[in-house]
Amino acid sequence: MSESRYIYLDNSATSWPKPPAVAEAMTRFLDEEGGSAGRGSHTRAIHAAASVFAAREAAARLLGVTRPQRICLGPGATWALNQALYGLLKPGDRVLACVTNHNAVRRPLLDLARRRVIELDWFAPPDHTRPHEPAELDRLLGEKQPRMLCLNHVSNVLGTVQPLAELTAAAHAHGVLVLADVAQASGVVPLELERWGVDAAAFTGHKGMLGPQGTGGLYAAPGVEPIPLMRGGGGTAIADDMPEKLPERLECGTYNVVGLVGLTAGIGWLLDRGVEDLHRRKTRLLERLLAILEKNGARLLGPPEVEKRAPLAAFTVPDRDANRLAADLEEHGGIQVRSGLHCAPGAHELAGTRESGAVRVSLGAFNTEGDLDALDRTLGEILA
Ligand SMILES: Cc1ncc(COP(=O)(O)O)c(C=O)c1O
């Protein structure tokens, strides 16, 4: 795909391009290293184990976690969320979950509720334009008395950045465990999971963290000890079960070392530039993006205030089919965006777009004003 013909504005699905250091590190690993971590004591295996540890350390730094051993690495946020939900919930537990959750949370919870393992209650922000109110959550937690609260830090449809520290404090006041989906937040907004007291959080490597697909993981605070979702190689071969301790307890099978090497490089690039500075830059672009949408008569999903949002914007245009509009953007201007329900039907329900779906533009670290000029021009031409 020729680079110049396309403008990529779908960074919430997966970020592209990656910093050159990502492919360089992966190529170097494949060409010169290529060992398997925890499988052997020769130098190549030891180097691979060091690469896995480096990814753990880098992810911990980015997430605001001081103990890298509490970061369990796996193929992505979907794995991490399934691991946390099936590994922590017990028969009879009650869960309070936000309606805007991605299917990676929603489907495991619905499965557990359907099989009557858990009692499931849903909660929502006051409307699609506002974040949760800690006082209202406090009231609900008192009423429902769940064991676990499941919510996203950033909705992949509404873009809302939730006040995770305050919501976690509200949950802890009721002795409730907090599982946060930070797939859209990690690498995008500054995170301090440990200071905020979040009990468990699922992150992904291939979006804001600028790593390759097939990377991500679960942060579990000390005392949060999920039962492994899968069992296999790892730890002492003679033992009949997985190791007792995190992270190895949840990490079976051969590590995706090549992916993790790329993830470390992506995170390194982010940490060098500063997540906060990059976020500030993307917020300026987001301001422009919202102005373009407004000028073109689009209806925005989520908060109108940029300071309450991550750099993504889903929208509808009256009397225009969302899928057609996204296809037209690519056909006419080479602009790649995502349309539909974005795997989060509850967020669309809240915004009143469950039937129509929406078009989502999501900005990445490498988008420019020029990309938005092209969007503005193409949208104007299509809607004229
Ligand atoms: C909010 C949210 N949660 C979870 C996921 C799943 O992440 P992964 O691709 O790492 O499985 C996504 C990806 O689209 C997401 O947007």
Give an overview in words.
It is built from twelve helices and 13 strands. It has a seven-stranded mixed sheet, with helices on both faces. It is globular, with a radius of gyration of 21 Å. 41% of the residues lie in helices and 14% in strands. By secondary structure, the chain is α/β, with parallel strands linked by helices. It binds pyridoxal-5'-phosphate. Pyridoxal-5'-phosphate binds at residues 76-78, 102, 104, 152, 156, 181, 183-184, 204, 216, 343.
Topology readout:
Blueprint: E1 7-8, H1 20-33, H2 43-63, E2 71-74, H3 77-88, E3 93-98, H4 103-114, E4 118-123, H5 134-144, E5 148-152, H6 164-173, E6 177-181, H7 193-196, E7 200-204, E8 216-220, H8 257-273, H9 275-295, E9 299-300, E10 312-316, H10 322-333, E11 335-336, E12 338-340, H11 345-351, E13 358-362, H12 369-383
Parallel strand pairs: 1-11, 3-4, 3-5, 5-6, 6-7
Antiparallel strand pairs: 2-8, 7-8, 9-10, 10-13, 12-13
Bound molecules: pyridoxal-5'-phosphate.
Strand order of the largest sheet: 2-8-7-6-5-3-4
Number of helices: 12
- Multimerization state: single chain
**Which residue ranges are poorly predicted, with pLDDT under 50 across at least 5 consecutive positions?**
none
**Principal-axes shape call:** globular
Q: Report, as a whole number of angstroms, the end-to-end distance.
A: 29 Å
Which structural class should the secondary elements be placed in? Answer: alpha/beta
Keywords:
seven-stranded mixed sheet; 384 residues; binds pyridoxal-5'-phosphate; alpha/beta; four-stranded antiparallel sheet
